[in-house]
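Justification of computing resources. Each target in the renewal requires a structure prediction run like the one illustrated here; the chain below, 585 residues long, is used simply to show the kind of job we budget for.
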Amino acid sequence: MAPLRDLVRAEQVRLLYGDGGMALWSTLAVSGLLVTLLVWQRAMGLTAGGVFLGAMTLHTVARVILRSAYLRARPGVEDWRRWANLFVVGTVAGGLVWGAGLPWLMASGRLDLQVLVTGVLVIGTYGIVSAAGAYLPAFYTFVTPIVPLIGWYLFQGDGLHIICGAMLLLWAPTVAVIGQRYNRILTEALELRFEKAALADDLQAQKHVAEQANLAKSRFLASASHDLRQPVHALAMFVGALRSYDLQPRAADLVEHMDASISGLDGLFASLLDVSRLDAGVIEAKPVPLPLQPLLARICRDLAGEADAKGIALRLSPTSASVHSDPILLERVMRNLIGNAVRYTDAGGVLVGVRARGGEVSLEVWDTGRGIAPEQQDVVFEDFYQVADPQRTGGAGLGLGLAIVRRLTGILNHALTLHSTPGRGSVFRLRAPRVAAPRVATAVLPAARPPADPSQAFILAIDDEAVIQIAMTELLTSWGYRVGVAGGVEEALSKLAGWPTPDLIICDFRLARGESGLKTIARLQAAVGALVPAILVTGETAPDQLRGVMAGHPLLHKPLAPARLRAAVASLLAHAAPSADVAAE
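Resulting structure tokens:
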């Protein structure tokens, strides 16, 4: 960036050339009227008047050409001095023309005309303050004709002229002070302006650096989500397997504490990674026609155990409505809202319902919980904000749940409102566009038959990491199931001949060498010749990666709680064929 002094001077020069056009033509016009009057009053000869006006016209045209050249050139800051000097040369020329013309303009013996000429020069001097005061050298050369005018009055010899000269002599310094004051104020204003602009640029640059650093952090966490979840996922399964052993009371207590700690880490991990993906800008909504009943029923079914443990009712009002929304993002929003309602309701219950509102649908979550004070109802959606609660424990979370909801509703472009009364409860309303119910496609392969004895089912587990294979084998075996493991689809296909027909497939969503869990399941089902029920397990949270799962397989997220996996396994083995309304967790 150029030095402050050069920036100020360049702006002063720009003001000189920007204001000079009208002043030049006005000065020429006044000069013409003045010469015409003097010639008409026979106080100036026609030749003298023509010479003076010719000189003024040449001077004006030259100055206008110079101004046009400046405007066309649009010079940079570093060129200010050259253009300032050219402007000063022009003002000096103008002063010389007026100074040389004074003997003709100050009509001998006509005090009235002399006062008129003097008045024109005095008034023009005040007018020059705004036109040339931006740059002091230009201002001083503009007013140079005043000096010979004072000298002319003083050397006339009579008392009246001497008094007029003395008055002009006393007046001249005041004009200089006015010009200097105007220039100082303008210079200070320009310096302040450029300093503020420099500070704003610096602040913007620092903000950009901070935003890029935050974005890089978010992108790293978003891209590393799968790898970061893997160790915790394996640990959760090993702990789940340990619980099936006959442990000493002290060891059993330690396992329980480990399980609780892993569950807490799971929740914190999921929140941080979700926020990172949202802030990284990698999540976009891809709305489709979506029936609400399966989605809401699945969420309420998953949270029913927590509600029962607290002794509160969790009810879903049946609905046939469908909306135009992103299935994964909408489920995350509603799961968070319903989960919060259950978590912060100590007595009474939670009601989930859907109401038609013209061309929209209002998804509503009512609770009889603790409520939120009016002054907190806006800030509860801020990052890391937690409502003050004496009953809150250290495992209450990071305060990111509603912050994630706010980001997701923004991406979905769904309006979210909150109404709450402390001590009486809250209601969250989410409005989404209403559409006709979508058609459900039929499967081509026949449904697999449920195993005769679900407790002895054969489960095929596929994961490309050896530690996960070991953990999955230990966990499923501890539950009484028979287990076969493979690192990918080719290995699984090669082993199918020596294995029983799988009753259930548990497959990692993202396998090595770019293998897709969805395609792996499809190939295995084709090889078996039936729609063997399957569960996808993933550390991914990207909607673009997960949307294809919504068509038919339950999706469990890493780190995976063993109880959640066991419930999903038992449910699918009891029904065998995957249901069209099963979707991501």
